[in-house]
Design brief:
This protein is mainly alpha-helical. Helix content is about 75%, strand content about 0%. The protein folds into two domains: about 180 residues; about 180 residues, no CATH class. It is globular, with a radius of gyration of 24 Å. The protein starts with a helix and ends in an 11-residue tail after the last helix. It comes from Olivibacter ginsenosidimutans.
Length: about 375
Amino acid sequence: MVFAKVLIKCFGREFYRINAGFLSASIILIIGYGLFIKSAGHVPEGQSLTINLILLIHFLQTPAITLVVCLLWLLYTIKCWRYMWKTSKRHDQLFWRYSATSIAYTRQLIAWTLFQTYLFIPLLFYWMVVLLYGLYTQHYEAPFYSGIYLLLLTWGSALLYLYRFNSLTFDQARFMLQWTRVFKQWPKPPWSLFLLELLCHGKLNLMVTKGISLALIIAFYTLFYDVDQPTRTAALIVLSISIAHAVLVYRDQLFTEHHLYFFHQFPYRPIFMYLQRWITYTILLLPELIWCIFHFQFGTTTLLIALSISSLLLIRSLADIIGQHMRRYLQWVFIVFFLSIFFLLYDASWLLIGINMVIAVLTYLGNYYNRETLSIVK
């Protein structure tokens, strides 16, 4: 259809150009896994690549991985919606508000469906690989349910776009939940400011991070539930969840330096502000902490909660020292991660927690009055 071609030309190509880096990194990550995964036992000469591809396809067709992929598909779909919302409000795209309404609803719906299918080409490629493997092995559950899910996302997106471009009373503030209105009249103590920032401007980062946490918890139940050392395994999972929040911690550091630098001028004691940070990260990890409380015994739960919060506070102290250098920050985060694994493997979890807390507190107190953020950021 001509309408679908015009939509792809005006919106679709620009979407891929903007997200080329993200899509390329995702493809390289999946293909790299298939090329470098190692199988157990002796591999005949010349069959290494074939076996690696078989393992990769089997990995993609695993039910637990399929659930994680469905969550990532939903995040990708929301990314498409956000792009359309922002782009359609540009002055050079306002003509769609009256030109699209001159076409019948049926033709518009078909065109938007084709347009969303174009945006879903990376997802369709993944689904085709799973489908071919399902046909070969005669296991049709994952291809069938993931295909239905993909169709629902496509049709739901098409209906959403149809409403967006045809509703004369459409208003983004009414249609989408605006957290600023929900919390406008609430008191805002210092610990809540970064959380509100995430809810208002960092929802995608928050959802991706929580999706990684969910994937790690699913991996604990599906891969490591019957291990000989469940406490050690749970500690490794909790440590990985804390490291997964490193991007949000870095965002907190940027938000504090750019928007909360004036807090150092208030008559707050450093220990009070440090407790505010403790509360912030406790609430940020609240879903994971609730999982620990309801799944493990009291002693193990206390250990896991202390490990997760202390690890997050240690990472935050690294951000205070390094500043706005993302590459160096991530390098040190991975160094901390591997050193922490060394302590956990030798069942020195409480020693690790103590070291984390001492370093985090000393770093915070040592840098509280000696920071560039004491000056007004231009």
